[in-house]
Amino acid sequence: MNSVLIRRPIRRWFPLFILPTFACFCIGFVWPFLQGIYLSFCNFNTPRDAKWVGFSNYVKAFSDAGFQHAFWNTAGFAVVSIILINVLAFAIAYGLTQKIRGANLFRTVFFMPNLIGGVVLGYIWSMIFDAILKGYSTYLTANATYGFWGLVILVAWQQIGYMMIIYIAGLQAIPEDLNEAATIDGATRWQTLTNVTIPNMMPSITICTFLTLTNSFKLFDQNLALTGGAPSVIMNGAKVNMTELLALNIYSTYNISKNWHGAAQAKAVVFFLLVAALAIAQLTATRSKEVQA
């Protein structure tokens, strides 16, 4: 009876409390998003002087050699980052849940890089890498391979600690009875890990894979501060930045000239659809492997 009396006024008045948040969501996200889609079909300097040009911006975007290279560069970066970050984060989390001394201190130390801004990290690591490469008479932005792996190391160093915390929470949520039952049945530590721990960790793996996937594709500030897309080469008569990822390519395209504003917006729409499709596919694939209670 009491629960009914409590729910009744909530049902009656909840639209009044939701309305301000919903209005802010529409003003701050829905309207700009719809306007961005419209502007991708226009040439414009500002939204007020937009002129409809149809699909020409998308043709210009897909024919841009820099955009094509940035896509494959981002895809390779995402694959390497997802594997490296999640494997190392899980390994560290597993080690720190084995009742070792100083575990809480190690958790804090590993998590701290996540608190530093991407731009700051980019400039710090650029100085570190250049100091190391100085002995080889080169520097980070002179070699695309060095720039790519430098970006991988930077992002892994920043994000491993954050993913570690999620994995630790997942490991601690596994009932101890399951591990004890596996031990009684004679399972080795490796068998317990692969047959008990990892299947029960799938919700955490889903979250961490989703975060690393989307973060890898959306990466911008670290890319800008560490390499700025350098080095640059000429491909098919066009300038291509060899370490440029998709988000930085969109930013660079917008800054070419006002004639490229529409193409940059078209790239942004394609970028959104790509990330959304990959994220949905990943969530569907990993959630299907989660252990049902």
Query: CATH-wise, what's the superfamily of the largest domain?
Result: MetI-like
DSSP helix fraction: over 70%
Q: Please report the total strand number as a whole number.
A: 4
**What is the highest CATH level, the class of the largest domain?**
Mainly Alpha
Report the CATH architecture of the largest domain: Orthogonal Bundle
Main sheet summary: 2 strands, antiparallel
What is the number of helices? Answer: 12
Name the beta content range.
under 5%
Principal-axes shape call: globular
How does this structure look, described?
The chain is mainly alpha-helical. It folds into two domains: 4-56, no CATH class; 59-287, MetI-like fold (Orthogonal Bundle). It is built from twelve helices and four strands; from the N terminus they run H-E-E-H-H-H-H-H-H-H-H-H-E-E-H-H. It has helices at 2-39, 56-62, 65-96, 103-111, 118-133, 144-172, 176-184, 189-200, 202-218, 221-226, 246-254, 261-287, and strands at 42-43, 51-52, 232-235, 238-241. The strands form two sheets. Strands 1-2 form a two-stranded antiparallel sheet. A two-stranded antiparallel sheet has the order 3-4. Strand 3 and strand 4 (238-241) form a beta hairpin. Helix 6 (144-172) runs antiparallel to helix 9 (202-218). The longest helix has 38 residues, at 2-39. It is globular and about 70 Å long. The protein starts with a helix and ends in a 6-residue tail after the last helix.
